[in-house]
Amino acid sequence: MTNGTTTSTAPVQAGAVPAADNKTVFAAIDIGASSGRVMLGRVSPASGVALQTIHRFPNGVVELDGGLRWDFDALFAEVLKGLAAAADVARGNGERIVSIGIDTWAVDYGLVNDAGELTTVPFSYRDERSRATVERVHAVIPSEKMYATTGLQYLQFNTVYQLASEPNLDGVQALLIPDLIAFLLTGQRRTEATNASTTGLFDAVEGKWATDFLDALGLPRNIFPPLIQPGETVGTLLPTILEQTGLPADTAVVAVGSHDTASAVAAVPAQEQHFAYISSGTWSLVGVELNKPVLTEPSRKANFTNERGVDGTIRYLRNVGGLWLLSECQRAWAAQGFTQSLPALLDSAAALPAGGPQINADDPAFTAPDHMPDRIRAAVRNTGAVLPDRPAAVVRCIMDSLAAGYARTLADAERLTGLSTGVVHIVGGGSQNRLLCQLTADATGKTVIAGPVEATAQGNVLVQARAAGVVTGGLAELRALVVAGEELVRYEPAQEVSDVAS
């Protein structure tokens, strides 16, 4: 287990970010379910955000102690390696890293005791342990009541169900993964609000913990540390971290949208008042941005979530299957000796005729790893169709299914919110997938604007830059900086791709 760390629950430090100048840079720790990286961000009001990848590393679940878990010690070691490399690069350029922001996936956590020790290796949301607790939780808190308070989409791996499966929570706190990393860097225990909103124990209207739910489920009221908002300072680095990384003593850890989707949505290059977005990666997060949650029964039945965004916005969205399906198929084919590059594979898929078989891409049957091509073909057989045993056919099925799922989800979002959107912004890794972008434009009948690929890291860095005073303004001003610094691509329904005019 990770070594113990001095801990504090003192009030959030104010003004701990060093003053900015033209040599100011920001470090972004951005970790997804399959990989992570440490990046340096340079922000200019004139030219936007420039990112430099310093260190990339793999991430993934491991089978340990009877479950699927994250190799967190290895993950944190890679974070430190990346920060040390970032410090070297900054010094070599005569720059100084004034702050660090952390974003990762949501819902998972580590249990930390009073001595600051991680008591068990954190479980992955892909583990099945929480499935058995869903009925027990809803026997105490009916799903209708839970949604009316939290506005959270039902997913069997939501934090509330994971915590309900824990055998013993005496003397520990649950730190969500980005908060756990921040704790190990600073010794300060906090829960960042955008990630807190994914737990199923957060009041979507009041913006605070739903303590009555904690009580009803027999969970300690202090099971989570106090809340912190994006842009507030968690703390400065511990002496041991300074020694291992070579970072300046006044380097601050600043809370950003620590749920990676919150950071990604903050960097959506929207110039429209109403827009739709798809944060496309391992998962696809499909929705619209609101000023207040939608907690209606139709919204619950449609399984939409109301998660916090930067500046108190609401990310009204639904989780849809994502490029996990494709990456798992590639992994399976590589093991069989098939090594065609992804661009060539997508070109082959694009050459196939439209109207082929589709699957429900967000079916829980596709959550677990391994044997993905076989599972996709089995799902197609269950529809009465047949999917040829060729990689290109499987890839086309995945792309058509994702695009159709996006279209259904966006139509539901507009119906449930009363909004009308004419543009869909695709950010993240999926924005590079020309086939997926074009099929999405065709399926939705809307203009698709693709980019930036690194939206999550850009949102992370922009919140830090604003905290340091390098830039000012709200989300509209931050997004204008993304537009200024990115080459975006436009896809029109059933038409050719063209570059967005700058």
Automatic annotation (TrEMBL):
Keywords: ATP-binding, Disulfide bond, Kinase, Nucleotide-binding, Rhamnose metabolism, Transferase
Annotated ranges, domain Carbohydrate kinase FGGY N-terminal: 27-265
Example of a GO cellular component annotation carried by this entry: cytosol
InterPro entries: ATPase_NBD (IPR043129), FGGY_C (IPR018485), FGGY_N (IPR018484), Rhamnulokinase (IPR013449)
CDD domains listed in its UniProt record: ASKHA_NBD_FGGY_RhaB-like
Top-level taxon in the UniProt lineage: Bacteria
Molecular-function annotations in GO: ATP binding; glycerol kinase activity; rhamnulokinase activity
Keyword Zinc appears in the UniProt entry: no
One GO BP annotation of this record: glycerol metabolic process
Family that this chain belongs to: Belongs to the FGGY kinase family.
Protein name: Carbohydrate kinase
Biological source species: Paenarthrobacter aurescens (Arthrobacter aurescens)
